[in-house]
């Protein structure tokens, strides 16, 4: 084979390898970062079906800010779940909670002695999960070991003052076929961590919580990326004689945006 022919063959191989690398690169998901002062980006629409993930999401080492609302889904309804509505509006998620205490209840006392408990949970909340509706039965979540600095979020009430607890992690049990609690196959690496009860007003407020006290292993597979919880006790909702909310219950509406894990 001539030298010219050998050179042409090597060049041909290089071009083929480069083309393959470009195709592979186009298939890798890009982590979009939304920075302070930057343009706001509309959130993706809420999915109608679950999208299982084969392994926990991993981030580039250079990532300094992780957008929870773009990478997790507000699908984990808790408490008196029939009283909750979820709506995505541009860059925000809007949650409406009408505390009637009737219908379906998803909480730690859903069953008592193997029987369905008709009592209301007297709270409601929504957990951001990945994949959607994944309470540990699927292998999912995100590895956030490089972002254990702080978690930051912005929230407001749409009517009056509301006391809201914010939480991360804690997806560590499910109900089995015998109506008893069990550990799921793929539990959350992050223990339930309260970020505090916040008093929300109609003006936007930004909150921060330091995560530096958590060991690195807590961030290996974070299933519950973020959650809010509104309780009857904290917001003056009274029960009637049947243990349901009294006739004149308030309606709680909160709006949430800009939830980030940050390296700093």
Please, could you describe this protein's structure?
There is one protein chain. By secondary structure, the chain is mostly beta strands. It folds into two domains: 1-30; 33-262, Jelly Rolls, CATH 2.60.120. 11% of the residues lie in helices and 32% in strands. It is built from two helices and 15 strands. It has helices spanning 3-27, 68-71; strands at residues 65-67, 73-79, 84-89, 92-97, 111-112, 115-116, 123-129, 150-157, 162-168, 174-175, 181-182, 193-200, 205-210, 224-231, 252-262. Strands 1, 3, 4, 8, 13 and 15 form a six-stranded antiparallel beta sheet that branches. A five-stranded antiparallel beta sheet has the order 2-7-14-9-12. A hairpin with a 5-residue loop joins strand 10 (174-175) and strand 11. The longest helix is centred in the first third of the chain and has 25 residues, at 3-27. It is globular and about 55 Å long. Mean pLDDT is 82; it is low at 1-8 and 13-38.
